Amino acid sequence: MPAMPRLSPRTLGIGAAVVTVLVWTAFIVIARASAARSLTPFDLALARICGASLVLVPWGAWMVMKDLRQKDGLTASSLFGLSPLSLRVTASAGILGGVAYAMLAYSGFFFAPAGHASVLMPGSLPLWTTLLAALVLRDRITPGRAFGLALIVAGDLVVGGRSLLHAFEGGEVWKGDLLFMAAAFCWACYSVVARRHGLDAVRATIAITVFALLTYVPVYSLLVAGGAVASRIGSAPWAEVAFQMLFQGVGSVVISGITFTKMIQYFGPVRSTMITALVPGLSAFGAVIWLDEPLHWNLIAGLLLVTAGILFGVQKSATGARNAAMPTVPAAAMGRRDA
Questions:
Q1: What's the pLDDT at 312?
Q2: Of 154, 161, 296, 324, which one has the greatest count of Cβ atoms within 10 A?
Q3: Which residues are within 8 A (CB) of 62 and not within 5 positions of it... i.e. 6 or more apart?
Q4: 95 burial level (CB within 10 Å; 0-12, 13-18, 19+)
Q5: Which residues are registered as beta bridge partners of 47?
Q6: Nearest alpha carbon to residue 241 among 102, 44, 109
Q7: pTM for this one?
């Protein structure tokens, strides 16, 4: 029987880039569409955590057992041998990247349109990560990167500023905008934690999922049982719950985490960030096509400013540190699990 042909590194890299961009774009559009259906933000977070856990918890247990057998120095584990990282690192990464990010991001979609999320979540990530990295990791903010960040801030203000001006008229879009930026801040904190400890992408993803499973799920269950938190997961169609577990958990957490890592291996952090800069525009126009959201002038201007800021910051930082081992801050911010 002839052997199956092996794909070239170029084919794998391009395929991984396509999958990553599609999943990240779909996440914004589907999360906004889900706000109009049965599940609450807390239900969506539960579906995300449980769906990812079906794959990552057994993987984490196998990884810990393998490390113990090989005794290769990677034997730090916690949470009953399910997380391949120490308890302190697992908890800090899990709170920021597993629980807080999901709750804030999903809650934002119940107030603001997907077009706002397209600008504010990817746009805020490089901003927050750069500032945190400068404070915690003593990273230097170059003039080129500062100009790119200024463009990003301008784009965020163009989009979010309009909703803030309408806050006194009774509108609630500004709440979603703030939640999106808070979600980006939590992921930026996770990115800095991951960089500071030099975490492997797969191990970090497993750790935050295990932590979320063992903390969020019990607390969620107790609050729902006590009536403190409303849940519609019991009355929602099973097909909707299964879809959310599959896409939000397996797709957004597991698959995009692996494909982004593959993309980084082939294209490098700078080119990868330039590729993922497609996400704001694609998701915004996807919301116009599939969700019938209006495309106002300020949204177009914000998209242009944010995308230009990401691309400009990456290109300028690449000229001075083309061979640096550490990925650039915008790459770490946009790449999530590349930290």
A1: 77
A2: 154
A3: none
A4: buried
A5: none
A6: 44
A7: 0.85
